[in-house]
Write a structure and sequence with these properties.
The complex is a heterotrimer of chains A (about 230), B (about 220) and C (about 350).
Chain A lengths: L2 H36 L5 H13 L2 H12 L4 H8 L8 H25 L3 H9 L4 H30 L2 H7 L9 H9 L5 H34 L2
Helix pairs in contact in A: 1-5, 1-7, 1-9, 1-10, 2-5, 3-8, 5-7, 5-8, 6-7, 7-10, 9-10
Chain B lengths: L1 E5 L3 H10 L5 E5 L1 H9 L6 E3 L3 H9 L9 E5 L2 E6 L11 H5 L4 E4 L5 H12 L3 H4 L3 E4 L2 H9 L5 E5 H6 L3 E6 L9 E6 L4 H8 L2 H9 L3 E2 L3
Chain C lengths: L2 E9 L2 E9 L3 E5 L6 H9 L6 E6 L2 E5 L4 E2 L2 H4 L1 E4 L11 H5 L15 H8 L14 H14 L4 E5 L7 H16 L6 E5 L2 H7 L2 E6 L2 E7 H6 L3 H5 L5 E11 L4 E6 L2 E6 L8 E7 L3 E4 L10 E12 L4 E8 L2 E8 H7 L6 E6 L12
Parallel strand pairs in C: 3-9, 3-10, 7-8, 8-9
Antiparallel strand pairs in C: 1-2, 1-4, 4-5, 5-6, 10-11, 12-13, 12-15, 13-14, 16-20, 17-18, 17-20, 18-19
Helix pairs in contact in C: 4-5
The chains are: A mainly alpha (about 230), B alpha/beta (about 220), C alpha+beta (about 350).
């Protein structure tokens, strides 16, 4: 593959992995953010610590833990294999690594948004006859939507930039797991590879900046609506 | 005394540094990363890299070098499998042994060990068959880890790596003629670094290198 | 339509033990801050379960600690108007108003959006966002939202507390319309403002330190001398009903009550309308003989019903004027010196300003 083609392939794969990772992680992150924000239960601090672990562990360590847990030879890996899901050296493994690395950031953003919703509004909705699901869907969700969006964008951006855990878990396989950061790293490892790297760095920056701009614009729209503009 | 060195030299260099009279601060990393850091002005007295390509690049960048770079150790390439792997009857059995798994090597362009592995596989006529069944890592120790964890059936690493890891078994030694010489060039960047450089080429250092699976360079 | 409330609840050092019934019309819960009013109304709404007791509506238990029965707020069909309005910030006024309508059972009767918009003067506000509304507008929207959920009963927790004088005066007529109008919803109304209670309530429950101190029809409770310390000496006063006769050119209005005619300033109502007046007890003077040459224009012949000596230097006198009752607050010394006793006939003197401003309502 020419280096240009390799670069586009890496971008395509990064977008693919990042989109999947975001879509799969958002509902789970929202649920965890909810119970951390609203519920009290035994083991709550433990759960919070566990969620934040990928934030504080070196990415390589996280990747190694994933290898130990989900590698071909590992218990969970074998279990998933038997039902047809192979994560090893497959883009789905890159998705898992991206989800885990981005999860703490998503949960944090969403939890803050949920905590900012006045529970008295939810009380008011209950007195108006709304069942729990309706309260969540018609009152809470619209109010935390900007926070969910912020969390999703952070998760997406993190997935686009994830390197250490991914390469340790699923290596660098063009077309499968050679994401943009991996390709940039590989280019930088070759003497004189800076030019190729620069092109890919610009690609990555455009995507990241684009994502942030879109989320900012959406957040502004929501805020303006509430302010009555 | 600050020494920047390629990651694969960790065990050996730590021992040499301990035996050295005086404090030595060791910093390990990928050859490319180290070279770029030094070119950008990192305050190292000595640099030891894992291939001549990056050393040549460093010289081209105009980095101030006291003495011409010289190799301080050499290495050989081995094919490894998990500890309980069956011996390989002939090298051409490699693709079959892979079956549905992958061959773990360092990244073919970015990691020196990966470049050497590719050269060897090309010389052995196996490259085309296995090039789409690779698991390329960002450093050779990660490839070793894949084999240790049973994530892959085979890997190509340095002999020094195989020595360091009891859970793997060497299945084949690459003929030295099948790849570029695996030499570790070292250079002194400051006058102070010269002393450590000489220590690296001493007989004692040679013994330590050999014990760690490298080949000592005969001066 | 009866709401039967019996609640025992303890939190921290506060101990609540109350029992009362609320029938049709407006039942007011009155007490100072910390008397337990909001706790009671929240328990009625089902926002929490008290330690013990029961809340029953027309015989159906909404909460019963012995039977372990508890109906969730959404199923109780009470419209709750909160002190802080609590409009949904991301929905405009119309969307707020119609929020609960879809949850009302098909059989529920209630007003339509147009009815409520007219009743509360919301037509110009329908497309506005809550953040752009004034306090009074928010509160009206909150009332409308509660009504449009087609509740069986309204619960209002100090709905006017966060409004200033003029805004309050603006909304009180709307609340009177709720009580008197075609909707005819029973309302449980929590307040610590005596003028609101005097103007709106049909039944009054007086709370102090977590206990019910007095409970009964408004006129009876307000005219009871025992209510004076509970309402505060400056606010206590009996409520009487009078009919507006004429507005004089010098600013006084002539009203007819069963005890005699009164001349009061600041009455806006049209001739022929019946209004409620709260006559402040501290501004009612007594004279054993019919007074002559006084500046006060209102003099009514009264019969003393009861002389109630308090702990301090004051005494509260219950008076009957025709069919109405009045309260007068005088000193114990005056009681002694004038020899005021039950059954005695004398005269009550009301200055034109003896009627609490803002307590002239329908």
């Amino acid at each position: 593959m020419t280096s240009d083609a390799a670069a586009w392939e890496a971008l395509r794969l990064s977008l693919w992995v990042a989109c999947w990772a975001t879509v799969l992680a958002v509902p789970l992150a929202l649920w965890i953010a909810w119970i951390l924000a609203r519920r009290d239960f035994w083991g709550k601090s433990l759960l919070s610590a566990l969620v934040h672990l990928p934030l504080v562990l070196p990415p390589v360590v996280t990747g190694y833990l994933l290898l130990m847990g989900f590698g071909r030879n590992a218990p969970l890996g074998r279990a998933l294999d038997s039902i047809g899901i192979t994560l090893a050296f497959h883009w789905s493994g890159a998705v898992l690594a991206a989800i885990i690395m981005g999860f703490p950031l998503m949960v944090r953003a969403m939890r803050l948004a949920i905590e900012a919703v006045d529970p008295k509004l939810e009380e008011a909705a209950a007195t108006l006859g709304a069942p729990r699901i309706a309260i969540f869907g018609r009152v809470t969700l619209p109010l935390i939507a900007p926070g969910i969006l912020a969390g999703a964008v952070m998760g997406f951006a993190k997935a686009m930039g994830e390197f250490g855990a991914t390469i340790t878990f699923v290596a660098n396989i063009p077309g499968q797991t050679q994401t943009l950061p991996s390709a940039i790293w590989a280019a930088l490892q070759i003497p004189g590879g800076e030019n190729q790297a620069i092109a890919m760095v610009m690609m990555a920056s455009v995507v990241a900046i684009g994502a942030v701009l879109i989320s900012e614009a959406l957040a502004r729209r929501v805020a303006a609506r509430i302010a009555g503009a | 005394m600050t020494v920047f060195a390629a990651a694969s030299l960790r065990g050996a260099l730590e021992e040499i540094a301990q035996a050295y009279p005086g404090d030595v601060s060791l910093s390990f990393g990928g050859s490319g990363t180290i070279a770029r850091q030094i070119a950008a002005g990192a305050p190292a007295d000595v640099v030891v890299l894992a291939n001549t390509l990056w050393m040549d690049w460093l010289v081209e960048q105009g980095t101030h070098i006291i003495e011409a770079p010289q190799p301080v150790a050499a290495n050989t390439l081995v094919l490894i499998g998990p500890k309980d792997a069956e011996p390989l009857a002939e090298l051409n059995d490699l693709p079959a042994r892979l079956a549905t798994g992958r061959l773990a090597i360092g990244h073919r362009d970015a990691v020196p060990a990966g470049t050497y592995a590719r050269q060897w596989l090309e010389a052995a006529g196996l490259w085309d068959e296995v090039k789409d069944r690779l698991a390329e890592t960002d450093n050779v120790r990660a490839a070793l880890a894949f084999v240790t964890r049973g994530a892959v059936p085979l890997g190509i690493v340095y002999a020094s790596d195989a020595v360091a890891e009891p859970a793997v078994k060497v299945l084949w030694h690459a003929p030295a003629s099948d790849h570029d010489t695996i030499a570790y060039p070292a250079a002194a960047l400051t006058p102070v670094g010269k002393t450590f450089l000489h220590a690296l080429t001493s007989p004692q250092a040679g013994l330590i290198f050999t014990a760690h699976g490298f080949q000592a360079v005969i001066q | 339509m009866t709401l039967s409330v019996h609640i025992r609840h303890r939190f921290g050092t506060f101990d609540l033990d109350v029992a009362f019934d609320a029938g049709p019309g407006i039942t007011a819960l009155f007490g100072q801050s910390g008397a337990g009013k909001t706790t009671i109304i929240n328990a009625v709404a089902g926002l929490f379960a008290p330690d013990a007791g029961h809340v029953t509506l027309n015989g159906h238990p909404l909460f019963d600690s012995t039977a372990k029965a508890f109906v969730v707020p959404a199923a109780r069909r009470f419209g709750y108007v909160f002190q802080d309005a609590r409009l949904f910030p991301h929905l405009n006024v119309r969307e707020n108003l119609t929020f609960g309508t879809r949850y009302a059972p098909a059989s529920a009767k209630g007003a339509s959006l147009d009815d409520v918009t007219d009743l509360l003067g919301l037509s110009a506000l329908l497309n506005r966002m809550p953040a752009t509304l004034s306090g009074g507008e928010k509160q009206r929207a909150a009332i409308g939202r509660a009504l449009l959920a087609k509740p069986q009963m309204l619960l209002m927790d100090e709905p006017l507390a966060s409004l200033d004088g003029p805004r309050k005066q603006e909304i009180l007529p709307y609340l009177e319309r709720l009580r008197d109008g075609p909707l005819g919803l029973p309302i449980l109304y929590v307040s610590h403002a005596v003028d609101e209670i005097a103007r709106l309530a049909d039944t009054l429950v007086l709370l102090k330190d977590g206990r019910v101190q007095a409970h009964g029809p408004l006129y009876d409770v307000m005219a009871d001398p025992a209510a004076v310390p509970l309402l505060g000496v400056r606010e206590a006063g009996a409520v009487i009903e009078a009919e507006v006769l004429t507005h004089a050119t010098d600013g006084l209005t002539q009203l007819r009550s069963s005890g005699g005619d009164l001349h009061l300033p600041g009455v806006q109502a049209q001739p022929g309308t019946k209004v409620r007046l709260r006559v402040l007890a501290q501004d009612v003077m007594l004279s054993v003989n019919k007074p002559e040459g006084l500046s006060a224009v209102n003099v009514m012949p009264v019969i003393i019903q009861d002389v109630h000596q308090g702990d301090g230097p004051g005494a509260a006198i219950a008076l009957r004027a025709g069919d109405d009752r009045l309260l007068a607050r005088v000193t114990r010394r005056a009681v002694a010196e004038l020899g005021l006793t039950t059954g005695m006939r004398c005269y009550a003197i009301l200055k034109a300003t003896s009627v609490a401003p803002g307590s002239i309502g329908r």
